Amino acid sequence: MASLGLSVVRIGEFAWSRLEPARGGYQLDWLARAVDTLAENGLKVVLGTPTATPPKWLVDEMPGMLPVGSNGQVRGFGSRRHYCFSHLGYRAECERIVTQLARRFGEHPAVTAWQIDNEYGCHDTALSWSNAARDGFRDWLAQKYQSTEALNRAWGNVFWSMEYRSFDEIELPASAVTEVNPAHMMDFRRYSARQVADFNRLQADILRSHSPGRDIIHNFMGRTLSFDHFALGRDIDVASWDSYPLGFLEDRSDASDERRKKYLRAGDPDFQAFHHDLYRAVGNGRWWVMEQQPGPVNWAQHNPAPRDGMIRLWTWEAIAHGAEAVSYFRWRQAPFAQEQMHSGLLMPDGGKAPGFAEADRVAGEIAALGELPQTGTADVAIVFDYPSAWAWEIQPHGREFDYFRLVFDFYRGLRKLGLSVDFVSAEKPDIGGYRLVLVPGLFAWNDELLAALESHAGIVVTGPRSGSKTLDFRIPDALPPSLPTNILDLRVLRVESLRDGCPVAVPGQGAFKFWFEHAVTGALAKASAVCENGMPAIVRQKDFVYLCGWPDDQVIDSMLRSFAGELDLEICPMSGGVRMRERGDLTFLFNYGDVTAGIGEIAKQADGGGCELLLGDRRLEPSGISIIRRRKRTPPG
Amino acid sequence: MASLGLSVVRIGEFAWSRLEPARGGYQLDWLARAVDTLAENGLKVVLGTPTATPPKWLVDEMPGMLPVGSNGQVRGFGSRRHYCFSHLGYRAECERIVTQLARRFGEHPAVTAWQIDNEYGCHDTALSWSNAARDGFRDWLAQKYQSTEALNRAWGNVFWSMEYRSFDEIELPASAVTEVNPAHMMDFRRYSARQVADFNRLQADILRSHSPGRDIIHNFMGRTLSFDHFALGRDIDVASWDSYPLGFLEDRSDASDERRKKYLRAGDPDFQAFHHDLYRAVGNGRWWVMEQQPGPVNWAQHNPAPRDGMIRLWTWEAIAHGAEAVSYFRWRQAPFAQEQMHSGLLMPDGGKAPGFAEADRVAGEIAALGELPQTGTADVAIVFDYPSAWAWEIQPHGREFDYFRLVFDFYRGLRKLGLSVDFVSAEKPDIGGYRLVLVPGLFAWNDELLAALESHAGIVVTGPRSGSKTLDFRIPDALPPSLPTNILDLRVLRVESLRDGCPVAVPGQGAFKFWFEHAVTGALAKASAVCENGMPAIVRQKDFVYLCGWPDDQVIDSMLRSFAGELDLEICPMSGGVRMRERGDLTFLFNYGDVTAGIGEIAKQADGGGCELLLGDRRLEPSGISIIRRRKRTPPG
Amino acid sequence: MASLGLSVVRIGEFAWSRLEPARGGYQLDWLARAVDTLAENGLKVVLGTPTATPPKWLVDEMPGMLPVGSNGQVRGFGSRRHYCFSHLGYRAECERIVTQLARRFGEHPAVTAWQIDNEYGCHDTALSWSNAARDGFRDWLAQKYQSTEALNRAWGNVFWSMEYRSFDEIELPASAVTEVNPAHMMDFRRYSARQVADFNRLQADILRSHSPGRDIIHNFMGRTLSFDHFALGRDIDVASWDSYPLGFLEDRSDASDERRKKYLRAGDPDFQAFHHDLYRAVGNGRWWVMEQQPGPVNWAQHNPAPRDGMIRLWTWEAIAHGAEAVSYFRWRQAPFAQEQMHSGLLMPDGGKAPGFAEADRVAGEIAALGELPQTGTADVAIVFDYPSAWAWEIQPHGREFDYFRLVFDFYRGLRKLGLSVDFVSAEKPDIGGYRLVLVPGLFAWNDELLAALESHAGIVVTGPRSGSKTLDFRIPDALPPSLPTNILDLRVLRVESLRDGCPVAVPGQGAFKFWFEHAVTGALAKASAVCENGMPAIVRQKDFVYLCGWPDDQVIDSMLRSFAGELDLEICPMSGGVRMRERGDLTFLFNYGDVTAGIGEIAKQADGGGCELLLGDRRLEPSGISIIRRRKRTPPG
Questions:
Q1: Do the Cβ atoms of B579 and B271 come closer than 8 Å?
Q2: What is the pLDDT of residue A558?
Q3: pTM of the predicted model, to two decimals?
Q4: Residue B281 forms part of a structural domain
Q5: C570 in catalytic set
Q6: Which of residues 454-483 of B touch C (CB under 8 A)?
Q7: Whole-angstrom distance, CA of residue B590 vs CA of residue A406
Q8: Is A566 known to be catalytic?
Q9: Which of A335, A369, A403 is where one domain is finished?
Q10: Contact yes or no for B479/B505 (Cβ under 8 A)
Q11: Nearest CA-CA partner of A366 in A179, A588, A182
Q12: pLDDT tens column, B322-345
């Protein structure tokens, strides 16, 4: 490990049955030996808390801790994540084991950080339909609403005679005859997300108290929106995520079949970048890749091998977006159990796996490059909001409406123009520094965000569907997008969800797909683009813009080019699978495609600034990387 | 409402939690005020009984009333229709609340009608797999068969050792290792349908006794075949149905993708007409549209907006088929709960929704047209039978075989030739007045129908699969179609179900798809068309016809043209999305298509008769309507 | 029956409710009358034991005997196979009823054989998730591993803290949060397969003791791999299977839509042959078709009718592969219950069904042909292994990876070259007599097989994925394919599963699909074909070959032609749907296709040997059969 150039090693994240083989019989010495061995070789350690895998004896002691599916079936022992976040007894057990670990290893000089648990929400575990969850939900509702009258009013329970007379009458929103009240489900989503945050904070507090100065980390999973990561971000020091580009393209992507084939061994060119930027926001600027795919994985419907060079490329891409560390998972392929087909840097026999050489190369390159500039602030921000993902999952209204998919479409459009992007939480909307701010599909405004948008100097793009609900999951009295007239004088009278292949054309620009809103402008707003059917497509009031539908790639591209021009944002349209990211005065270029690409325009712009090619060259082979140091941009003309 | 031209308003159909917030604490005054307010403005009221939404306190008192899915999971509180039709305790509760309402409002002068419950069978609720259903089923079987020996014989339980020794041994036909005996399932379907009818009759009797002279109505849902609507039709005065053309095309249609796109904002041109005609039969001539889609709805996989003019068109189409009333659902869009995305005539803020103007226009047009002629009797009848739908759901034999789909194919064929159609119940086969009678896919003959067909003067078309079973769900001793030789001298030796794309050609006419029967004619019958494989395609004996397969559109068209010629039925082939319907001496023309269509042939025929254009003109714009008054037809030549 | 030329009749296989209508009240006389009646007409009888359909009174006495689905739902009474193989109480009941039957009929001169139970494993019944299974599994594990330490080590339970401290802690591998340990599941599959074998042996022992000299038979179902048929083969005298060519093409085939349409009424040309050869191996040379499809069946998603002549062809094909008997199911179509749409040789009314004449014809032809030669040994063997099917079902790694599908691709390739094939059990690898031996996708080597392969004189083809695991479901220490260097000096470093449409080309030969392995050869082995990407495609060391991917039809064809040339195997490439099979000195030719085919090359070869056409002629009509007697082949040149 040391000779490969690794500096940090994560261990222990699933080891409860070895740390405490029987209640109270702690056996921590073996772990101490491992930590010491690593330390002696100059390696730092991230210690994982083992709470994602409670041992069988513990489960048998308190079977009520097991999570329950929405069909009422208990989700049992035999794999991992077999616990219900709402179960207070299990929380006490976690407190106990984490305290033991923190006391023993908290001040070990080699322990540089802690990872709490592992991939919250993975395998659909953020929601549990257990008795513990039901009881906790009732208490949470009672505290939130104080009276059932208030709850009935907020949820609109008069509809279909769903009124409650006691909080103890309220069931979890599963197993009703047809769909449940979306307000009921939305509160259960909020409650459940809160349990994850509370569960995490309990461990963070223990670790912080017994292990001062160490970073507290959680490793989030890709495209996981079942709880509010920003809320956890407040309790941790570093956000990390587990980046499996090929598995994600197979199993967690909306890509067409053609696109899946094209990027089979490279991964989607924007998926990793999206998460890098998102988790930088979750971590308040500090983030890692905790698990980087080093070869084929085991869990997707198909598991191809990365194209030569992609492991290096993925690593550099994370660095470009500001990662403090990129950790490969796993070091050595385990020859047994569930993940035996998950590659490591080493093969099961200890030999070097094909990915080893790439990790080796990139480690050398990073070392050679020396200290990197700060990531800095991008010109463009996207306001991101986990509750909006819940809202549209509860009420998609059209089969294709998915919050991630919508935001990702905007993100890709920005990135295809060479723009770097930051994410901003809707609940902590620090958008002051951005010239262009996008707020697609935001469920409901909050006061801070509204205030920030109102006072924002720069273009704000909202819609479709932004502000179409109140926080109580109602249609706002003033109708969507429910903005003060002085911000946007617009009312949406009707919305349509559309099947694929039934677009609404925006002449000269492209079309809306999946979603279209029938909007009428007031005196202060004006349609800056009109649909073929005569209805507003893009509405603008000063620098505030609203999109009346789900824009296709053409609409996104033409709109962003226009705003970039207006704002003097330098764009650099990318061809094929080429992508770029700026970090301070460095520009990183990546080729996800399978043909060699020139970097002409970028190089020209760079040359104009008097630049230096730090890595790679002016032609990007497939899987190629180039790094350019450029002076401050000179505005064109 | 009054100024819009509405005359009748339906209210109260889900209000139990407000009518009786706690057991016995009736609060009817608010409803009285609403009725009075409507009355003061000249509006009549349809009062709904609230039995589709029992309140939580009632459910908690008797949880055994909840319906149970075929997987054994209880279907709980939280939406609507959370009751089991078999539960006698719940029936008593319904009796109680309905009696209260009937006593209070039964003789109110503004109350012109009652709607019992709401959309029986919606959300798959006609069948419940509860203990109440099991016990009721056992009793029903004991009464039907008197001895298990008789039941074992009827069902053929000797097969696979399924014999019973006591009625209490019989379980509901769910959760067996593989498919259950179809006779077992068929009896459970009959039993379940009977519970719906009994449940409904209980309320009808109360209302009839306390509210003399008022119409008793139920609002059926589209393409709902899970219980026998004709059976309920005997206990109500008016059948009504809930017509959502766009939602039905999305979620309840067999249309191809191409067709779904073509009629995205118009709805299938034949789906509404089919139900109008069907519910006219269910209501013994009296029927309404109780809920007419007034804009986008909330519940389909995609929810587009109606094309301009379609709300008017749909309304007129209902009138053309004889509707006594067309009621829009809903008046004002509710901003909360499950149906918050379901349009109304008013928007959530009380402003006029886009559909308002169309309702306004059609109300004026109807008023201007004055009294309409009686609907009269069509030339063509289709014999319809709910138990046949159950039978082929139980034993489709080929994946595509669906009773509704088969009948709908024939209906569309008739309608594309401009023919008006009546439906006739197979159990009350008044077919005397019809020149052409179609009996496609009828499960089993009954004596009345056989007698009616035998004595019928006119062409009778049966098959495929008609008469292929006995009422006990057996293959008839004489082999299908099991008709007396003097009616049809034909035996089916084999049937084939075929995958899509594997047709059996009928040269010169088209092909059979999905289903083909190997039939041999006796001395009295003759194949009037022969398949490419040499086997009979269409068999005829005097005026009795049998189809040896599922005809594609071409076979249906050529066959119907031929019979129409023979019977001197005037046909008027429709182009694209144009359709027509006659009501007395009026011909209504509708354009569901998206291109303007001439009505040349129709107008020519009309001119020949010396006619008058009452509404619209000779060119039908998309969504256009024309109404022609014509003299009695003169036979051509 | 007798006049049709039938000689053996199977009866009684589901008759428990008639044999014992109430506990202990045996009523065997009716069955004795049936047997006597058959005997009086010269017919032999196969008596079925009725254990696939325990009667309701028995189930009610011991409801714990019911099988349980993996979702925990009890699979109840009402069809068939409603018992759990692990339930010892039910086994005792089976012992009781079988003993009664065996005592009464065991020495009846007309009883020539017994069929035990019916279609083990059908309707997914080999696995049951009952308490009985759980308890049995724990005992079985305890006996296998002796200590939980050993089990934990073997399974790798240290992973994810899955370690057990007592065998009673181990649950059935269902309902975990995400996938369970494959080793856990593999042992449950082994345990479950063992229960089937034990259940069967219990009856075999009783019958053998009370009915000496009679053949003990079970009728297996097509493409059923859920238990080890070879294991049962050790306890029975004759293997039989139930051959439904059209139903299998519809429901149990990987064929493309195009292929399904092409062979709609003929069945897949290789599916029956595959099973004939497989069950000949299971029966140690002795096998029957116990149920031959005689017309349309009832159970597939589509149920077309066999093309004229196919029932005769299917019958002859079985004879060609060495069947001792071909029994049609059923004699007369039952007009009631679940299989009322399943054709028989007679129609429900007793008339002759269309298939009757074909059975009649083939019976005459067989009689005319006289005694047939022994089937003999083929030149080619495929090593087949049921546990491998379980392993890849547990861990497909790529969605398309299915053991049967893989083996079937090789089988079809052989058959399209006119080669006859034998199957050999991996656990009893008598491969001495074969010139070409294929071992595709074998999960794990065993010592006997390795020894046999090592000493084999002839070409051995292994891979893909062969030997990629140990018997403990681990990756072998030496990496796959884990062969001694002297057999194959090759290591697989990485595997990829690929989505359809993403092949890895093997220039000049075709491509790999679905699966590709990155292999490196050692000094002793050599890539005889290389992929476009430069990696080994086919690796060879002396006569030992390894395939580094799932070969498409082209690769299979070119490889087999090459090996056949090398080995002097005479090939005879088949066009379209023509197939051949040798039995002794006879060559049988079949035309599954729908165009007439010449048999030129075969006839020429035959002529060269001085041959005789025993049946049919030199042109094969669709459904045609020709039989040629040939002298011993003369090697070409």
A1: no
A2: 98
A3: 0.97
A4: yes
A5: no
A6: 472-479
A7: 39
A8: no
A9: A369
A10: no
A11: A588
A12: 999 999 999 999 999 999 999 999
